[in-house]
Input
Amino acid sequence: MNEACKHFCIAFNLLSLAFYSMLQVHQNIPMVDLKTQYLKLKPKIDAAIQDVINSSVFINGPVVKEFQHNLQNYLNVKHVIPCANGTDALQIALMALDLKPGDEVITANFTYAATAEVICLLGLTPILVEVNPNTFQINPVEVEKAITPRTKAIIPVHLFGQCAPMDAILDIAKQHQLFVVEDTAQAIGAHYTLNNVNYKAGTMGNIGCTSFFPSKNLGCYGDGGALFTNDDELAVKIKMIANHGQSIQYKHEVVGINSRLDAMQAAILNVKLQYLNTYTNARQSVAAFYDAALGNHPHIQIPERVINSTHVFHQYTLKLNGVTRDIVKEKLQQQGIASMVYYPVPLHKQKAFKNNRNEGIDFTISENLCQTVLSLPIHTEMTETILQHITSTLLNII
Output
């Protein structure tokens, strides 16, 4: 390709990005914009994928090990074990702890179903507890109330992009000799100050779990996940479980599953990991704009931050008071602005997770959140023009 063609291609790509951004304002504004993010990294992403195809090593191989090593360094954790998705990561974590059917695992009532799902799949009992109504994080006071002789583990969910109050959670776990499995699918890159030391989300408990679903802050172009731990023995067991229970081929020491991060996804994640801090900064800038534009409205409560935690804003979630949330959502949609309700039904009202231990508990906070929360578009490619359009439209509707 000659120099003139190169300059033309660069100019064309820049114009395409600018035109696409303008179109967003005049057409639909999505919750996430993975296409524009890809276009900015296209040469590196395409080259990484092509390298995998050229090598023809599609499962495990050098690129997966490279990503594993890079993520270990980023998180400052001893072991990263990649796997097929975030739900598998949670299941593998609980399997590695040798819990027995009927053992109880405490987790938040206001979260996605996957956390409770894996507890049930293993014959364990999910014990649901309330969250803080302003930060949306699991409430340590409610955790302590829920502990019984059958309690074996706590799964704090770092919801929407910031950490649960880990100092209190870890103190409770130590006092009662419980395992802590961090669900950090929405908060990779966040850090928490614990005893004057900064820890990355997912590296404070016994095991951390994450998802690389495409819309996550660090997302691949399919499914992917990983587990983190500083415990050498747990790391060995996690690796075996994720690989059919074997550390040596055809020598199956424990019952395991087949859960692997494929090489193409690892190659994509290797590229995107280099930009994760940049992505975090972009999301935090969007959140700061929303805070300033919406923070003084009497019917809008902007997300409260957890003390000691940073927030990487996987979602920017408001609470709407004195207005009907679903009507606001519908009117935003009519104006071409996406919004989402995470989550419309609390876990204790889901048929799949009902049990006697959760009957009769007051879940008013979760039920209220399910009626009032609304998440606005947030991603790495948002312009001030788009943000002004979203916020002025929302304020006009309310």
